[in-house]
């Protein structure tokens, strides 16, 4: 039961999409998932054609039901190591074996350590204007400075509102930065952000070190994206083909945010599908090689080995 054609590590959009393709290809597939999706704090998922506005948990539940219909196993757990062969060890002590591996472990968002920020993350402290901008359109919006891409982030956010403030925080704005922000009518609020003011279950404002409080409707923050690629790097120096997901480690594929931190849900799902197709083709090639009869030269070598062993006896 623990022998599989493919074990998919990670049960997000990329991993489940790959499992669907492989299940439909009549492969023995297991998906191991730790149950910590990146978009869990968000109330809705946007930008996925036909699934726009769907809660992330509902999307995952539907996907798991679909793949179960093709015999794919869902295993709740965390893979702690993968050794060549492939043997996967889980934190629970369980061991799985597979002919091929697909790593789809996603990423985590590292956000500034500002009181109140984590509490409102994915609700009215947002990261992606393409994911959330339409829902907060035409409202007063803020963008937190401090990250290398914060100014560009503010220029993008301006598309959804005429009232955008750039909170400089720790960001050292250059003259060119200020000119670019001014060109888009984005005002700059200088000063360090001390905390977010939360009133009950509502984001009520931003407190600055100067004692002033500004109250945008929502705050956009550019997080540091940390791919969950520990398993990949543990297998060696990994290079991933962006088109197929095939890595430089034979028998290992990767897809989704683990290799493309900017991939949205729909993009990650597509990458998972592409990786599964390439992976299945590779399995077919091995199946053909395994089924081919020995060549005459191979038969002679086997006969010689058997004869030598017989003479020694």
List the helices and strands and how they pair.
Layout: E1 3-9, H1 13-24, E2 29-33, H2 56-68, E3 73-76, E4 79-83, E5 87-90, E6 95-103, E7 107-110, H3 117-120, E8 125-126, H4 129-132, E9 141-144, H5 150-157, E10 164-167, H6 175-183, E11 187-189, E12 193-199, E13 202-208, E14 213-214, E15 218-220, E16 224-227, H7 230-234, E17 252-254, H8 265-291, H9 296-312
Parallel strand pairs: 1-2, 1-6, 2-3, 6-17, 8-15, 9-10, 9-15, 10-11
Antiparallel strand pairs: 4-5, 5-6, 7-16, 12-13, 13-14
Helix pairs in contact: 1-2, 1-8
The whole-number mean of residue pLDDT values reads: 93
In sequence order, what are the helices and strands, one letter per element?
EHEHEEEEEHEHEHEHEEEEEEHEHH
- In the predicted model, the low-confidence regions spanning at least 5 consecutive residues are none
Largest sheet: 7 strands, mixed
CATH architecture of the largest domain: 3-Layer(bba) Sandwich
Structural class: alpha/beta
Q: Say what oligomer this is.
A: single chain
Measured on Cα atoms, how large is the radius of gyration?
25 Å
Q: Tally of extended strands? A: 17
> What's the tally of helices?
9
CATH homology superfamily of the largest domain: FAD/NAD(P)-binding domain
Question: Domains counted in the coordinates: how many?
Answer: 2
Highest CATH level, the class of the largest domain: Alpha Beta
* CATH topology annotation of the largest domain: FAD/NAD(P)-binding domain
How does the overall form come out from the CA principal axes?
Answer: elongated
Beginning-to-end CA distance, first to last residue: 39 Å
Helix content: 25-40%
Strand content: 15-25%
InterPro entries: FAD/NAD-bd_sf, FAD/NAD-binding_dom, Ferredoxin-NADP_redctase_2
Catalytic activity: [thioredoxin]-dithiol + NADP(+) = [thioredoxin]-disulfide + NADPH + H(+)
GO molecular function: thioredoxin-disulfide reductase (NADPH) activity
Protein name: Thioredoxin reductase
């Amino acid at each position: 039961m623990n022998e599989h054609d493919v074990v998919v590590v990670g049960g997000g959009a990329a991993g489940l999409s790959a499992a669907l393709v492989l299940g439909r290809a009549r492969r023995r597939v297991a998906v191991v998932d730790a149950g910590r999706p990146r978009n869990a704090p968000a109330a809705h998922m946007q930008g996925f054609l036909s699934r726009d506005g769907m809660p992330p948990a509902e999307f995952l539940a539907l996907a798991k039901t679909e793949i179960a219909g093709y015999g794919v196993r869902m295993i709740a757990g965390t893979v702690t190591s993968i050794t060549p062969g492939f043997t996967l060890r889980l934190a629970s002590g369980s061991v799985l074996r597979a002919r091929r591996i697909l790593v789809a472990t996603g990423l985590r968002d590292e956000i500034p350590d500002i009181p109140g920020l984590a509490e409102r993350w994915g609700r009215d402290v947002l990261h992606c204007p393409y994911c959330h901008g339409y829902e907060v359109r035409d409202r007063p919006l803020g963008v937190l400075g401090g990250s290398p891409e914060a100014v560009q982030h503010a220029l993008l956010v301006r598309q959804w509102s005429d009232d955008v403030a750039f909170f400089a925080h720790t960001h050292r704005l250059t003259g060119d930065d200020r000119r670019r922000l001014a060109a888009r009518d984005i005002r700059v609020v200088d000063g360090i952000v001390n905390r977010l003011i939360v009133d009950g279950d509502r984001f009520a404002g931003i407190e600055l070190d100067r004692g002033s409080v500004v109250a945008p409707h929502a705050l956009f923050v550019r997080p540091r994206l940390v791919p969950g690629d520990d398993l990949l790097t543990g297998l060696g120096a990994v290079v991933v083909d962006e088109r197929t997901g095939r890595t430089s480690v034979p028998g290992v594929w990767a897809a989704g945010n683990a290799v493309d931190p900017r991939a949205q849900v729909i993009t990650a799902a597509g990458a998972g599908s592409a990786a599964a197709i390439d992976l299945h083709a590779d399995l077919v090639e091995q199946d053909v090689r395994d089924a081919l009869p020995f060549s005459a030269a191979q038969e002679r070598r086997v006969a010689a080995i058997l004869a030598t062993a017989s003479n020694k006896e």
